[in-house]
Design a protein that fits this description.
Chain B: This is ABC transporter ATP-binding protein. The complex is a heterodimer of chains A (372) and B (221). Chain A has 372 residues and is of the alpha+beta class. Helices cover 53% and strands 17% of the residues of chain A. In chain A, strands 1, 2, 3, 4, 5, 6, 7, 8, 9, 10 and 11 form an 11-stranded mixed beta sheet that branches. Chain B has a single domain, classed as Rossmann fold. Chain B is 33% helix and 26% strand. Chain B contains 7 helices and 10 strands. The chains are: A alpha+beta (372), B alpha/beta (221). The structure holds adenosine-5'-triphosphate and magnesium ion.
């Protein structure tokens, strides 16, 4: 019975923990994804001269839409094989460092976590200052670990004062490998983007993404909304099921293993009981019990064992899930389908596990069983 | 004459290998109400004989009529059912269920005959009264003395009014006082008309029977 108890218990616990952990992941995914809208500049065929369809005040125009939190343009600065270094003349191995142009609100929309310093703001933008923000990986590659002494990065020899280092962000992981300079400065020095056209990143309030998406093109260019392709959040439900499903398969396999162990436990207990109670079997046979009566007796005993194991296991599992969730600060999530049939599952396992011992018991000859 | 048991040229050879001819050429008739003692030295075939008479084993030779029914040819299933209805066993080792009380142990006798629980328990109380243990009806059997346990076992054996009460060394595990009480009980049951067969190697037990049968090397003499 201990075996099934552990089996069913770990089954329920594992499913509950998976659900709770999965729910946690889902919650994060949902929250990030549901508040994101991206805009791509698709331009017009045959109008290559207009390399940037976003107006200069794109950020303000979109942020005026109800439900938008931050919105800004970004693009890859059109430089062929730029050299990026932390000191003039020192041509460090900078092949992997991307140079990105961004509006200040683009950076805000990525939900950055700043390791050091600060981001640039309207002041730097207005004065077209040569300032930069480094991704943590790029900063490490360049050997910049502190900001006291106002370090600079040199892009093809032009110095940019480093304002801050971004440790992580929620929406644009590639930013960590790059150097970010203000959009206006980039336009001044390097012109509008060429092959890789500009994009826009918008953070909305929860639930506003699709409504915002509908309004963005007209807000950007009332006379040419077709220049933009807007993508609202990926369907959060689909994402959830996929992630949840992957985890469930893994943990269901683990839980099944514990159930098998539980079944072996019951089979063993019942087999021992059969051997210990040979005299009782002999006595019952002498009183007229048919082999099937003996089989049914041991089967029902193992089924009851399984049932009890299932019930206790489910209770233990629930307690484990609740405690674990409280410790982790999660919302405990228990699927009814994992808990409700636990006693029945336990009973079924008891029944299956009891089959072989019951058969053995039924086959014991009364003459043998009564021999002293 | 009303024979309970009629054995005609009954024999049993264990298949082995090597084959053992444990019983052969047994001719015996036991009348209803008789009290028969079966004695013989160790290894003579007493247990084999008990197994055949008690329908626990099937003879390999001859015919056996129990209450006029030929039981040497019936199916395993029918033999089991008939055993439950017609034979009452009393074993040397009692074979009681330790964590059940006396009534429940006695009531077990008619469980497989399909008698309802209430009726079984009522009959069990009557049977305990017959063996003088009405006052111990609700005691757990592992709290009873050896003599009391054997009387509970006898109550269980007579619950369903069997044609034959078959006792295998019924006093083998008892001291002389308790043995005497059990033998007195058997005498009393005999007076009430019960057919009894006691298998023993104890001469004082055998002396209580009204007729003695001796087995030697697998044959009655
Ligand atoms: N299952 C068996 N297979 C083979 N031989 C057996 C088997 N059971 C008993 N025998 C043999 O049959 C003979 C009769 O055995 P049985 O047990 O009937 O003797 P018994 O009179 O009951 O002896 P005891 O007084 O010691 O109990 C013995 O020689 C015994 O070894
Ligand atoms: Mg013997």
């Amino acid at each position: 019975m201990l075996g099934t108890m552990l089996g069913v218990g770990s089954f329920v616990a594992v499913l509950g923990l998976t659900a709770s952990a999965g729910g946690q992941i889902d919650k994060r995914f949902t929250e990030i994804a549901a508040t994101e809208v991206t805009v791509a500049d698709i331009g017009v065929v045959g109008a290559a001269d207009k390399a940037m369809s976003f107006p200069g005040d794109a950020s303000d125009r979109v942020e005026a839409i109800n439900g938008v939190v931050h919105a800004g343009r970004w693009w890859q600065v059109p430089l062929e094989d730029p050299t990026v270094s932390s000191a003039l003349g020192l041509d460090s191995d900078s092949g992997d460092i991307q140079i990105l142009a961004m509006d200040p609100s683009t950076i805000d929309a990525t939900r950055p976590v700043l390791g050091l310093g600060r981001t640039f703001d309207a002041f730097h933008v207005g004065r077209h200052e040569k300032v930069a923000l480094l991704g943590s990986v790029a900063a490490a590659n360049l050997g910049i670990t502190r900001l006291d002494g106002n370090p600079a990065v040199f892009i093809d020899g032009t110095p940019f004062t480093v304002l801050g280092i971004v440790d992580s962000n929620a929406r644009m992981p590639e930013l960590l490998f790059g150097v970010v300079i203000p959009a206006e400065t980039a336009l001044d020095l390097y012109g509008p983007p060429t092959e890789q056209r500009a994009g826009m990143l918008i953070e909305t309030r929860v639930g506003a993404a699709s409504v915002v998406a509908d309004q963005v093109p007209l807000a950007l260019r009332p006379n040419a909304p077709d220049l933009f392709q807007v993508t609202a959040a990926p369907e959060p439900k689909a994402l959830q099921t996929k992630v949840g499903g992957d985890l469930d398969v893994l943990f269901l396999a683990l839980a099944s293993i514990s159930l098998v162990i539980g079944a072996i436990g019951i089979a063993n207990t019942t087999l021992v009981a059969v051997l210990e109670r040979t005299h009782e079997i002999g006595l019952r046979r002498s009183l007229g019990a048919q082999p099937r009566h003996i089989a049914v007796q041991f089967l029902s005993e193992s089924t009851v064992l399984g049932l009890l194991g299932g019930m206790i296991g489910a209770a233990v599992g629930i307690v484990v899930v609740v405690i674990a969730a409280v410790v982790q600060g999660w919302t405990p999530l228990l699927q009814t389908w994992a808990v409700a049939p636990a006693p029945a599952v336990g009973a079924l396992i008891g029944l299956l596990a009891g089959a072989y011992p019951a058969l053995r018991a039924a086959r014991i000859e009364p003459v043998e069983a009564l021999r002293r | 004459m009303d024979p309970v048991i009629t054995l005609d040229d009954v024999g049993l050879t264990y298949p082995g290998p090597p084959p053992v001819r444990a019983l052969y050429g047994v001719e015996l008739e036991v009348q209803r109400g008789e009290y028969v003692g079966v004695v013989g030295p160790s290894g003579s075939g007493k247990s084999t004989f008990l197994n055949v008479v008690g329908l626990l084993d099937r003879p390999t030779h001859g015919t056996y009529l129990l209450d006029g029914v030929d039981v040497s040819t019936i199916s395993e299933r029918d033999r089991t059912a008939l055993r439950g209805q017609r034979i009452g066993f009393v074993f040397q080792a009692f074979h009681l269920m330790p964590y059940r009380n006396a009534v429940e142990n006695v009531a077990l006798a008619t469980l497989y005959a399909g008698v309802r629980r209430k009726a079984r328990l009522a009959a069990a109380r009557d049977a305990l009264d017959r063996v003088g243990l009405a006052h111990r009806a609700h005691a757990l059997t592992n709290m009873l003395s050896g003599g009391e346990r054997q009387r509970v076992a006898i109550a269980r054996a007579i619950l369903h009014r069997p044609s034959l009460l078959l006792c295998d060394e019924p006093t083998g595990n008892l001291d002389s006082d308790n043995a005497a009480a059990v033998l007195t009980l058997l005498d009393q049951l005999h007076r009430d008309g019960m057919t009894i067969m006691v298998i023993t190697h104890d001469s004082t037990v055998a002396a209580r029977a009204e007729r003695l049968v001796t087995i030697r090397d697998g044959a009655l003499c």
